Amino acid sequence: MLFCTHLLLLLASVLLLRANVLAAEHLNVSGTAAVGGISTIQCWQLQHPFEIVQAYAGGPFMTVDLGNLTNATYSILPAGTNLGIHVAPVVQYAILLAGRLKVTAPGTNHAVFVEGGSDGFLFAADTTAVTTAGHGTEAVKASILLQIPTKDGIVPPHRVLHDGPCRKNQIA
After folding, report:
1. Strands 92-104 and 51-54
2. For residue 23, how many C-alpha atoms fall within 13 Å in the half-sphere facing its CB?
3. Nearest to 135 by CA among 102, 99, 95, 171
4. How far apart are CA 153 and CA 125, in angstroms?
5. How far is CA 160 from each of CA 54, 65, 156, 168, rounded to the nearest angstrom?
6. Measured on CA atoms in the order 30, 32, 38, 44, is the torsion positive or negative?
7. Are the beta carbons of 151 and 70 closer than 8 angstroms?
8. φ, ψ for residue 15 (rounded to 5)?
9. Contacting residues for 92 by C-beta, under 8 A, at least 6 apart
10. pTM: predicted TM-score of the whole model, two decimal places
11. 28-85 pLDDT tens trace
């Protein structure tokens, strides 16, 4: 009986999660940007909406256009690695596959702790073209980071939802 109750709760949770994910219209990401030449962290909503795609052998899934991308870099950061204050080397998506990073914007009270996995999606746009200050990055736990630059340094169309990182309930 207890097993059945737990199974029903698990199924209800999965269905609710699936309904919430399928209800998301746009991808929101925390990003480093620059305002007035100073690096900051903002919550962005990417302009391109999710599209629902019907799978041939199963239920629907969601996809979103991230724009034109170039080569990717796979980085391993041991726990305690501190990259110091730096600008983004290029305009890029940064996807934390595993681990935990702390990203800060000096001169602001903005900081974001990024967990690897589904919440590990960031965008870095505070390059030397727009800021001199940069942001700080520290690997709180051993981390695996995938960095994917945009073609020609194009920042994807987006709107700023607010200053500071996206809240957990804002991430699809």
Report:
1. unpaired
2. 8
3. 102
4. 9
5. 30, 18, 12, 16
6. negative
7. yes
8. -65, -40
9. 123, 124, 147, 148, 149, 150
10. 0.81
11. 999 999 999 999 999 999 999 999 888 777 778 889 999 999 999 999 999 999 999 9
The string of pLDDT tens digits covering residues 121-136 is: 999 999 999 998 899 9
DSSP output for 102-138: EEE-TTSS-EEEEESSTT-EEEE---TTT-SS-EEEE
1 within 8 A of 95, measured Cβ to Cβ: no
Q: HSE-up of 39 (CA within 13 Å, CB side)?
A: 26
* Token reading at 21: 């994910």
Question: What are the structure tokens assigned to 89, written together?
Answer: 């080397």
Question: What pLDDT is recorded for position 172?
Answer: 63
User: Quick one: which of 49, 50, 29, 53 has its CA closest to 41?
Assistant: 29
DSSP letter, residue 170: G
Reported as type and span, the H/E element at residue 41 is: strand 38-49
Record the tokens describing residue 164, joined without a space. 């500071």
Helix (H, G, I), strand (E, B) or coil at 72: coil
